[in-house]
Amino acid sequence: MARLALAVLAASAMALRPATTRVARAPTQRNLFGGAPPEEDTPASPPPGQGGQTMSVPGLGDITEEEMKLAMEFRQKMAQKMQETRVEGSALGGKVKVVYDGQGQPSSVEVTDAALGEGADKVAQGVVDAAKQAQGEALVKMKAIMQDMQKDIAKTLQADMK
C-alpha cells in the first residue's frame, strides 16, 4: 500500500490500462485481415492467489483494485480542489488584475479605464506583472494542495495498516 501515493500521481498523469493476458491463437481467415476476433477470445483470469484484478501502472508494476480505487478517489479530490482554486495578481495599484486557476493557467484579465489612460506600455507591463504574481501564487497553492493530499494519503495508509 506504500505505493499508493505514487499511484495517485500516476493516475493523474496518465490513463491506466487493466493488465490482461490474451490467449494466443493461430490467425484464422476471419481475423487475419482485420476481422473481429472469435467471441471466445477473452482475457484470462488473474493468477491464483492474487484475489482480484490488478492494474498495471508504468514504473510501479501491478496495483490492486482497492489501491486503484483509493488512488482515483484522492485524484478526484485533488482535481476538485485545484478546480476551485482561484488566485489573483494585480498591478498599477489594482487597475490591472489577472486571475489564474488552480492549474496555473490564466482565466481572466481585467484592465480598468484608468489603467488604459496610463498608456499602452504601462498597461502591457502591468498585465505581465499581475500575471507573474498570480502565477507565483497559483504555484504556491498547488504545492500546498499536493502536500495536504500526501498527508491525507499517509493518514489513510496508517489507518489501513491498523
UniProtKB/TrEMBL annotation:
InterPro entries: YbaB-like_sf, YbaB/EbfC. Residues 1-15 form the signal peptide. Pfam families: YbaB_DNA_bd. Keywords: DNA-binding, Signal. It comes from the Eukaryota. GO terms for molecular function: DNA binding. Residues 25-59 are annotated as: Disordered. This is Nucleoid-associated protein.
